[in-house]
Design goal:
mainly alpha, 0% strand
Length: 147
């Protein structure tokens, strides 16, 4: 039994190491378009709130404390994995954070819990908390370059 587990672990490790560059390349290509979309959405949101267009673009570009592609990948993971939030709610939250010059940490469980609570203004269920834990774990793997 132990020998079978070791063999299975070795096969999984080898396959993940082999497929990681392929997955990373395809994810990078798909998120390239989303990067411009994120900063543009934030800038448009800020401009709609009454901030000058050039200033809103500058503020929107300063929200990325990490690589913009990595941020887009983490945000995409959040959007697809968290049914509780809509894209517009997330963009409104990110716009407010950018306006207040606060950092956004999408690979932190406590940050994600606080973010969802601030957006929804209601207590989170155990299912929501477990889901956010999974999202933050996956995002931290992205940040470490595992995917």
């Amino acid at each position: 039994m132990k020998k079978n587990q070791n063999i299975l672990s070795s096969v999984l490790l080898a396959s993940s190491l082999t497929l990681a560059p392929v997955i990373t390349t395809s994810l990078t290509a798909s998120t390239q378009f989303k990067v411009n979309s994120i900063s543009n959405s934030i800038a448009k949101n800020l401009h709609r709130r009454g901030i000058d267009e050039d200033a809103s673009k500058n503020i929107a570009n300063n929200i990325f404390m990490i690589d913009e592609e990595l941020f887009a990948l983490m945000l995409q993971n959040l959007q697809h994995s968290c049914d509780k939030l809509s894209r517009s709610e997330i963009m409104d939250f990110l716009s407010t954070q950018a306006l207040m010059n606060k950092s956004v940490n999408l690979d932190s469980y406590s940050y994600l819990v606080n973010m969802v609570y601030q957006i929804k203004h209601q207590a989170l269920t155990q299912k929501d908390l477990k889901n956010l834990n999974t999202i933050s774990t996956k995002n931290s793997f992205y940040a470490q370059g595992w995917f």
